[in-house]
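Internal ticket - ligand job 240, farnesyl diphosphate:
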Amino acid sequence: MKDSRANQDDLHVAIIMDGNGRWAQKRGKPRLFGHHAGARRVSEVLESCPGLGVKYLTIFAFSTENWKRTQAEVAGLMSLFRRYIEKEAHRLAGKGVRVRFIGDRVRLDQKLVQLMDDLEVLTENNDLLHLTIALNYGSRDEVARATRRLAEDVAAGRLAPQDVDEETLPRYLDTCLLPDPDLVIRTSGEARISNFLLWQSAYAEYEFIDTLWPDFTAEEFMRVVARYHQRERRFGAVPG
Ligand code: FPP
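stdout (structure tokens):
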């Protein structure tokens, strides 16, 4: 979608929070121990955003592929998401955070979906920081769902095929209210995109960081964002 941000410092950072399992295994602990440690890092990174000029933070919490994990791990993650929302909802609301969820809600537990809906409503007037949590999210699934809705509009005569251009599809994506990401970070040393914001990140900068997510501190986040700003400044310095 077109970038309507008034302030170019209003960065959109998206994060693939990878490495929780390895972090726990290195300590001889179950994988869920790593996910819980990862959740604490979410809060820390989130708190640091306004001071760094990051207005949009989008985090990959659970992918459409993550259902292939053991039933125990999936159940543990779902319960972690429920508890995180229950525990953090009022704190996030009070701090000016607007929370949105992207991904397909159909397969999620109804109680979790209710909590997600409630949190979106509770924070809908906030504007300090826009936190988007990708839950049962996969880019290909998102594009398929968007295309289905677009096709329905064409079939119903609400949209003419000749009017479909590259501005059209983004209006049907889960991220339709967000600017495109400026910077995508993946932790844990893996250099893959893993079906995350494929359409939206066409022009994003990427940073692949070796640190496992539960070790990713606010200080390291600050250094990565500072590197991004430096790249931007070099761009601006190129003589025209
Ligand atoms: C990837 O690490 C991480 C996940 C699939 C879950 C991400 C979830 C959190 C950080 C929990 C908190 C989130 C919220 C929104 C409260 P991995 O398990 O694939 O790690 P590995 O590659 O080392 O096995």
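Auto-summary: The longest strand covers residues 54-63. The helical segments are 20-26, 31-48, 71-94, 110-122, 139-155, 218-237.
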